Amino acid sequence: MRQLVSKLKYYFKIYYFLSRFSILSVLIYRINALVIGLAPIVWLATMLIFLATIFSRVKQLGGWSFWEIVFLTGIHEIIFLLVWTIFAPNLRRFIKEVRTGEFDQVLLKPISPRFMASFRFLDFSSFGSFLNAIFVFFYSFNQVKHLIDFTRLAGFLLFLFIGFWTAYFVYFIFSSLALFFINSQTLFEWTFDLTDFDRYPAEIYHSWVRVLLTFFLPILFFAYFPTAFLLGKVGWSYLSLSVAILFVLYFLSHYIWHAGLRHYQSASS
Amino acid sequence: MIRGIITLVILIFIWSAIFKQTPNFGNYTFSSMLTYLVMVQFLHFATRGNIGRLTADEIKEGKLSIYLLKPISYLKMWFSSFWADRFFEFFIRFLIIFTFLFLLPNYFKLPLPGRFFLFLLFLVISLLFNFLWNIFQATFAFWVTDIHLFTTTLGLTVGFLAGELIPIDIMPNFLKTLSLFLPFQYTLYFPIKIYQGALSGGEIVRGVFVFLSWIAVLYFLMTHLWQRGLRRYEAIGQ
User: Fold this and answer.
1) How crowded is residue B102: how many other Cβ atoms within 10 Å of its Cβ?
2) Does the interface ipTM go beyond 0.85?
3) Which of A16, A25, A135, B150 has the fewest beta carbons closer than 10 A?
4) Would B237 be classed as within a structural domain?
5) Cβ–Cβ gap A190/B3 under 8 Å
6) Is the pTM of this model over 0.90?
C-alpha cells in the first residue's frame, strides 16, 4: 500500500511539472492563445443556427427538443475540450514518434511509457473555447432544468467521468495500433471524425448504427448516454453498462499496449 | 474522403428524421435535400484545395525565397499545380456521386446532360475563384506569423455562408440576405441549384456575370496584397 501511495505521489509530482511547463509554453504567445477560441465560437454559432433552422419547422428530433440537443452539444463540447487538452494531442504525437523512431527515447526514461504517451503535455491552446462550451452548457441547462431528474445528478457526474475515460481508452487503443502498423494516423483521425455521431440524439440513427456505437465502438457513452440519463431518457442500467464497458476497454487497452510494445521495432534510429 | 462520408451519413440521418415529420422543408423534398447534401460533399472536396495553407507555410518558413530566385512566376506555378490537383480530385470525388447513384437511385439522380454540362462549365469559374481565394488568404502570412487559425475560422464562416450546412434558401432571413450578397454562394449553393435544375437561363447568366465581377475584384485585391506583402517579406529562418 505504501509503495502504491509513493508511486502515485511520484506520478502526480511529474504531472505537476509537465502541466507547469505546458502553461508556460502557451503563455509565450499570449495573443495567439486568446485568438485560438475564435474558430470554436464560429463553429458553435453555425451549429446553433443549423439547429434553430431545423427547429423552426419541426418540434423534435428523435424525441429531443431544441434545448435538449443544445444541452447535449454543450456536454459533448466540454468532454471533447478535456479530451483535446489532456490526452488527444499526446496520442497523436505518440503515433508520429513511433513512425519516426523517436519513441525509443520515451522507452529509455525511468517512467511508464504509457503515461508519457498519453499525458506528457497539457494542451491549453483550446482553453478559450471552454468559455463558449460552458456558456452553452449553463444557458441550455437553464432551459431544460425542469426536465432534469435531480436524483440522478450524482449518477450523471459519474457517467461523465466514465464517458471521459471511455474516450481515453478508445483513442488509446486506436493509437496503440501504431505499434503494430507503424502508421495508424489515418485510423486515429477517422475515429475522431466518428465522434460526430455523439453530438446528436442516437434515436435518429438506424438500429444497427446504435448497436455498433454502443457495444463495438462505444462513442455514445462520451456525451449522449450521460445526457440522456440526466434527462431521464435512459435508465440506470446504462450506467452499469458503461462501467462494464469501461472495464472491458481497460483490459483490452492493457493487452494491446503490451502486445504492441513486444511487437515494436524501432524505425530509423 | 472518409471524413466527408461520415459527415454526410450523419446529415442524412438528421434530414431523414426531419422528413419523417414533414413531407417538405421549404422547397425541399427528402430527395432534393439528399441530392443537395451529396453535391455539397462532392464540391467541398473537389473544388476547394489547400494551396492557401501550403503557400502560407512557404512564406512563414522563408521557403518562398527559393522560388523568387528562380526564373519562374511563383503564382503561375501554383496556378498550374492547383488545376492539376483539382482535376485529379474531381475524378476521385466523383466516386461519391457514383456510390449514391448506385445505393439510392430513387432519391439521387443525375440531371439532364445539358444541365450537367452547364454545371461543369460553372465549376471552371468556381475553381478560378477558389484559386484566387486560396492565394488571397495566404497573403496574410506576410503580416501574421501563422494563418492556420485564421484560415480555419474563415473556412468555417465561408463554408456556412456558401450553404455547406444548410441550403441558403432555408437559412434565417438575415443570413440568407447576407449569403446571397456575398460571392461564396457561387462555390456551392449556386452550382448545386444549376445541377438540380432550379435556376432559369436568365438567373444563370446573371449569376455568371455577378460571379465574374467578384472574381475581378478578388484578383485586384489579391495581386495588390501580394505585391505589398512581397515588399515586406523578410525570409525568416533562411
Assistant:
1) 9
2) yes
3) A16
4) no
5) yes
6) no
